[in-house]
Amino acid sequence: MKFSVTVTLKKDVLDPQGKVVLNTLINMGMNNLKNIRQGKHFEIEVDEKKQSEAEKKIDEMCKKLLVNLIIEDYTITKIS
Amino acid sequence: MKFSVTVTLKKDVLDPQGKVVLNTLINMGMNNLKNIRQGKHFEIEVDEKKQSEAEKKIDEMCKKLLVNLIIEDYTITKIS
């Protein structure tokens, strides 16, 4: 089973990296741009039969390593 | 309008960062893990009325700055 995990900074946390990308795009002549925030993306493949078990495992990985719960949010989606 | 852009390394490109995450998780005692690949995620907000116009603009941003088309693939999804 394959899952996609998206990790984003919480709404109220400053995102300097996204700001740099935003300013660069504006300097390149892009208009009507309002905001950009950058995050991380993981594609995780696990060898489990049950989806609930697999999701529990992915959630544990997020909490223990992939996500800094103080400043980041995450969403898990099944791909295949 | 808000879009999500996911940038991933192409299937045949080595992903050392994902490999490190994979090995770390295995060392932490996670089993049944098959593979992990890491990518980037952008949330882009544009001030456009038409969805087609907005998507064209986002696509241009990807091609010009956000994505290295030689080694990376990208997908654009409308969030809101």
Give an account of the 3D structure:
The structure is a homodimer of 80-residue chains. Chain A has a single domain, classed as Mth169, Chain: A (2-Layer Sandwich), CATH 3.30.1280. Chain A is an alpha+beta fold and 80 residues long. Chain A has two helices and three strands, in the order βαβαβ. In chain A, strands 2-1-3 form a three-stranded antiparallel β-sheet. The mean pLDDT of chain A is 95. The longest helix of chain A is centred in the C-terminal third of the chain and has 16 residues, at 51-66. The A-B interface holds A 4, 6-8, 18, 21, 24-25, 28, 30, 32-48, 57, 60-61, 64-66 and B 4, 6-8, 18, 21, 24-25, 28, 30, 32-48, 57, 60-61, 64-66. Strand 2 (33-46) of chain A pairs antiparallel with strand 2 (33-46) of chain B, so a sheet runs across the interface.
Note the main attributes of this structure:
80 residues; 2 helices; Mth169, Chain: A; 3-stranded antiparallel beta sheet; homodimer
- The main sheet of chain A orders its strands as 2-1-3
Largest sheet of chain A: 3 strands, antiparallel
Supply Rg of chain A. Answer: 16 Å
CATH first level of chain A: which class?
Alpha Beta
Query: What pair of chains forms the biggest interface?
Result: A-B, 33 and 33 residues
Oligomer: homodimer
How many strand units of chain A?
Answer: 3
The shape of chain A, in one word, is: elongated
Structural class of chain A: alpha+beta
Helix content of chain A: 25-40%
The CATH architecture of chain A comes to 2-Layer Sandwich
Which fold name corresponds to the CATH topology of chain A?
Mth169, Chain: A
- Report how far the terminal alpha carbons of chain A are from each other: 6 Å
